[in-house]
Amino acid sequence: MASAKPNKPDTEKDASKMTDGAGEPAAEAGGKLNFIEKLVAEDNKTGRFDRRVHTRFPPEPNGFLHIGHAKSICLNFGLAAAHGGLCNLRFDDTNPTKEEEAYVESIKRDVRWLGFDWDDRLYFASDYFDQLYEWAEQLITAGKAYVCDLTPEQTREHRGTLTEPGRNSPFRDRAVAENLDLFRRMKAGEFPDGARTLRAKIDMASPNLNMRDPVMYRIMHASHHRTGDKWCIYPMYDFTHGQSDSLERITHSICTLEFENHRPLYDWYIEELGIYHPQQIEFARLSLTYAVMSKRKLLRLVEEKHVSGWDDPRMLTISGLRRRGYTPEAIRLFCDRIGVAKFNSTVDMGVLELSIRDDLNARAERRMAVLDPLKVVIENYPEGQSEQLEAVNNPGDEGAGVRSVPFSRELYIEREDFMEDPPKKFFRLAPGREVRLRYAYMVTCTDVVKNAAGEVVELRCTYDPETRGGSAPDGRKVKATLHWVSAPDAVAAEVRLYDHLFAVPNPDDVPDGGDFLANLNPHSLERVTGQLEPSLAAATPGEFFQFERLGYFTPDSVDSKPGRPVFNRTTTLRDTWAKVQKQGDA
Ligand code: ATP
Ligand code: MG
């Protein structure tokens, strides 16, 4: 139901903007309030809810949380925090067949990891089943609900369409006593699944289909993850959500746009029951280019093993992003930047990537690693000799200090940093050319060693001992600075390089009624064996590094072993060194 709306194709405009549709600037961009903040401020001014702000985040425990949920979490917890209010965590667990305790635990962990706290306000809609049942009987007694014997198919037929009114169920005018008796027998388990429903008696001619005698309860002989076999009838989402909000004295019940035309029903139940009335507010759900966000689709990716699990680093689940190397700060920054709006649109994946770069640029220590090694022998460097050179851990943060990296006669550089026959714009290593090795010396390529197939397997170079640290006393310049590692000291490690999980900006856009899986990117994961500077052998999950010129990396939390990390690339760099190279010198 939630994903009926197709994603808009991404456009260049989408790529650059930091709002998602209504032109509401992110709070960051000048402190202007978004439309929800304005509504809350207005309610506080009029004293509508006694100046209380009490929100909730209401996940259904039928999957792991994703980046879209993060938007909702930041909004709900953030709004409460901004007004000294409260935010509840409430599991919306009305569908026993799809829900599991494991999902509950993963959701709690992810909300906490994002930096939010519900204190003692952890609730489950299933805790309200007794109360909801009582309220259902109350509506029956008031003549506002009836037991209907139509099959699901007949119910659909009677419902009408957007252009045609529905038809009354032949069971609509059952006497109250009969309705009560049948509903109690439904609860007692006398009828099979689907045999009967309890429906609200509203208006089969309403232009809003949700108001055409919606189902309140259905029969489902299924065990519930919390209530076990106590119930064989379960309330529908619409009959549960508003009343749960009411019981928890929520002030602003924020949900996504597809619930906008459920709001009259939300209000109807609460008014008919005569209970405390929260305000439902709808906002645009997050969609991102190159991603799917529906849990149904994420579940398929997991179950059909297109990914290694819910926490596969290519998944935009919170656990996938965490394993990939995203930080809570970056995700919160992203949610801030995209803002909150009333119209659906698609945010460019680049906005998410920019958020993690901005965060890691400040905190990640720099290291050197070579992912596609090409051997270099420094012919005039004495055999058996080595030295320690000083390297800066973070040029933007003096407090991060320095470290030593070993230098020796045999090194690795990146294969793509050498060309035997370079075109004009290629300023890196080539026969006869001098470049700088970062934190080390200037070296000149003197010879190229090839294998029988004619491929370059080794470079012969000389170094200038006068250039220790990277600059020449005579002031001569070079046009490129390369990263490198000392071959005898390097540690080999598996490094996983990721690309978008989907090959196209809108994976739901499939020609000829195909499946979104047809748009999977076959090159979304590449595993290489990198040669890393020795300090990286001790890296542990939860640490973040910038491998110079290659991107941000973190040890994989599942597959790393002590002393033997496996690295995930979180994201590539904006090409900061490209600029440096153009200027001709670092
Ligand atoms: P799905 O369509 O993936 O199943 P859902 O809306 O059913 O998502 P819930 O667990 O019910 O998932 O969502 C919990 C809360 O998170 C709801 O308030 C919902 O509106 C919000 N939410 C879900 N997806 C997004 C999204 N893409 N952007 C913003 N908020 C979202
Ligand atoms: Mg839902």
Structure description:
It is a single chain. This protein has 14 helices and 27 strands. Mean pLDDT is 93; it is low at 1-30 and 575-586. It folds into three domains: 12-16 and 42-127 and 241-358, HUPs (Rossmann fold, 3-Layer(aba) Sandwich); 134-235, Glutamyl-tRNA Synthetase, Domain 3 (Glutamyl-tRNA Synthetase, domain 3, Alpha-Beta Complex); 365-582, Ribosomal Protein L25, Chain P, CATH 2.40.240.10. Helix 8 (237-247) crosses helix 9 (263-273) and helix 12 (328-338) crosses helix 13. Helices cover 26% and strands 22% of the residues. Strands 12-25-26-27-23-24-13 form a seven-stranded mixed sheet, with helices on one face. Strands 21-18-19-20-14-17-22 form a seven-stranded mixed sheet, with no helix packed on it. Adenosine-5'-triphosphate binds next to helix 3 and strand 8.
Oligomer status: single chain
In total, how many domains does the architecture comprise? Answer: 3
How far apart, in Å, are the first and last alpha carbons? Answer: 55 Å
Average of pLDDT: 93
Task: Output the radius of gyration.
Answer: 30 Å
**Number of beta-strand segments:** 27
Low-confidence stretches: 1-30, 575-586
CATH first level of the largest domain: Mainly Beta
DSSP strand content: 15-25%
CATH level-two architecture of the largest domain: Beta Barrel
Bound ions, cofactors and other small molecules, one mention each: adenosine-5'-triphosphate, magnesium ion
